[in-house]
Amino acid sequence: AQKITQTQPGMFVQEKEAVTLDCTYDTSDPSYGLFWYKQPSSGEMIFLIYQGSYDQQNATEGRYSLNFQKARKSANLVISASQLGDSAMYFCAMSPNYNSNSGYALNFGKGTSLLVTP
Amino acid sequence: ETGVTQTPRHLVMGMTNKKSLKCEQHLGHNAMYWYKQSAKKPLELMFVYSLEERVENNSVPSRFSPECPNSSHLFLHLHTLQPEDSALYLCASSQDRATEAFFGQGTRLTVV
Q: Which of residues 29-68 of A touch B (CB under 8 A)?
């Protein structure tokens, strides 16, 4: 079974500063994917960034980067140059390679609420 | 049009009502999912459809009944719900070997 842990229920960051959101995971699968999603108050889950377990380099996507440390089983999200619009819930999620029982279903952490202040 | 569309966005229903949630994806994906998001809990996978066949039923009560008439549409039929079923219900779709699932905006359900 896979488990995702996000230990920070809430975080504050000042506009234009960088912030790191923590995520650790536990799995016995040899191959898996790690994801970060953003959920604003409107409810929609917005995909931010993906890291494959065999990827050699850390994923980057604009202001988002994923600090992937496989041996420590951590996949922290780094947001650089925070903007007011970044205020939202952030979820770390994990998916195995295709599973005949659950397809590509994601397992989610409990989320971290990020508030960006002026 | 957005990739995954859910209707309605908000729904209030009594415990004796019957209602349905609708999800439509325009991405050509072959797998669709229903997730439930309750306050202060991680998203919970409810149902998975792959190639229009249900492949996962995650111990969901029978008062929730999914239907996938084709690869683009997914329904969640609701009947005799309980107040604790109030939550945000999210639909998602993905494609084989895809790197991410795409989510709809969700239906916020309140059972009174």
A: 33, 35, 37, 42-47, 50, 52
